[in-house]
Design brief:
Elements lengths: L8 H16 L1 H33 L5 H47 L1 H7 L1 H15 L2 H25 L1 H9 L1 H38 L1 H7 L2 H8 L3 H42 L5 H14 L2 H25 L18 E10 L2 E11 L4 E6 L5 H8 L7 E6 L2 E2 L5 H7 E5 L9 H5 L8 H10 L3 H5 L16 H15 L3 E5 L7 H12 L6 E5 L3 H6 L2 E6 L2 E6 L1 H4 L3 H6 L48
Parallel strand pairs: 3-8, 3-9, 6-7, 7-8
Antiparallel strand pairs: 1-2, 1-4, 4-5, 9-10
Helix pairs in contact: 1-3, 1-13, 2-3, 2-6, 2-12, 3-5, 3-6, 4-5, 5-8, 5-13, 6-7, 6-12, 6-13, 7-11, 8-10, 8-11, 8-13, 11-12, 11-13, 17-19
Amino acid sequence: MPPRADDDPAAGHARALLRTATRYSGSRCVVLCLVSIAATGAGLLLPAALGRALDLLLAHAPATRWVLCCAGLVLLLALLDAVQTVLTGTVDARTTAWLRRRLTGHVLGVGPRAADRFGSGDLVARLIGNAAEAGTTPAARAALLAALAGPVGGVVALAVIDGWLAAVFLAGAPVLALLLRAVSRDTSESASRYQRAQGRIAAALAEAVEGVRTVRAAGTQDRETARVLRPLPDLSRAGHRMWRVQGRAAARAVAVAPLLQLAVVAVAGVLLTRDRLSVGEVLAASRYAVLATGVGVLVGRLAGLARARAAARRLGEVETEPATAFGTRRLPDGPGRLELRGVTARRGGHTVLDGVDLDVPGGTTLAVVGRSGAGKSLLAALAGRLADPDAGEVLLDGVPLRELPHDDLRRAVGYAFARPALLGGTVEQAIGLGLPSPSPGVIREAARTALADDFVRRLPDGYGTAVADAPRSGGESQRLGLARAFAHGGRLLILDDALSSLDTVTERHITDALFGDGPAATRLLVAHRGATAACADAVAWLDGGRVRAVGRHEELWRLAEYRAVFGEGAGPGDTGDGDVPSVSHARGGASGETDSMSGRRVTGAAAGEGTDS
């Protein structure tokens, strides 16, 4: 549901989110509202019943029925209160769970952009803490309605007893209304500040936990602790402001409400002396005056609702980051030809890839090499649409990736990373992640191809060992990630530095399997080792965000600047042994030359720096 035009996008998304969340638990919210109103109604009937019983007792008339009525109302109030408590907890839990599922799915749909904008720690704080606070909104609204019904019903009851009683109370009602309005506004502002400070602490803590080995090695625990807790003064000020707001509201309520109650009781006493009211009616009027001035309950309800709305706005900020949209065009049969046409990508205000053109024929292997900052990992992300370019397009077998359905794209493209996230309960589930119906045979064959089968079998429960209980080195984690990519299959396999932690012997065995009868038709590798690049059909040399040249590794190796990428040969100022006829090698020239060996398009060298993404 789109946000209102007269408000900021985050607030509009927050309102839409809360409306949908309320509808999700709509039936329970209706029951909770009815139960709360019934409890308020019983509370309003009790003073009248007590007054009537008192009048009968003073008149020495039979009052058993009214005494029993009072007892029944007390029992009913206790029962309704218990039901209200259970329903409130149920609605809060259901709404919180729905919000977390909704926001988690959205964050995963947005992809890395969400963590780039908010930070992983702040995202976790929003999905855990803020979702729990926002999840109380439906129940809080129902409770607020009942809390409002109490004062309104009290005023109506005073009017029924005598119109002067209601008039006296209404004379001071505007003061209470202004008080409640100020509480809602000030609480919302301070709650927003409090939650933002919580998010900053969570973001810093996540960074510290992720780099805990570095922190310990550097001996900077105290410094990191101070950095994580730096927002604490802001958190404290915001928290104290919330307490001051509610404290001032309570103090004003204590000052105003008793005066109104005394005024009502005083007028009731005058009416009693004039025989316009009975003693029981005076008792009932005093109780209704207390209900009508129930500002304390309203202050608490409004403060809770303000905090929930502030939390919902932080969730709305996450939803303002649009999720990746997919098309409906089907992927035709093909060998997995990958094309990048004029691809430009920017990160952090810098152009990392600038007008990149590449053509990887189906069934071949292209290694992408370059210095740090050349944009290799970003190119690998664009090739399988883990990210979208700012300009240009990426095609798989002639179809732009933006036009493919999500499931078709993910089935067609497999990934392996330098630091794979091994998700799933067991090792077998981690390897089979993403497969609709992974078979043990496919998983074990993929593990054998990645040379992971031997060490997995040595685990306490083999493939059934829980991932958290499976001790492994960085290289073994990479082999499990490779096994997952091999099990995935598909027509395009992208390895983003996925061999970096392997020893040379293991890497050679895997590259032999990969480049021989490998599990994917077309392969794109981010390579940092010359031996890996040498196994590929062709190498794309990234330099300054553009493709400097495309050719065979042994031919590019004649160039000193290419050797310098791997830390070999002369420095970058040396032009090497001369140009190689079969390799495009331009210095500021235009793109458009063709490598006669690989048939790939070549883009000329470019000036400028990028950053690895």
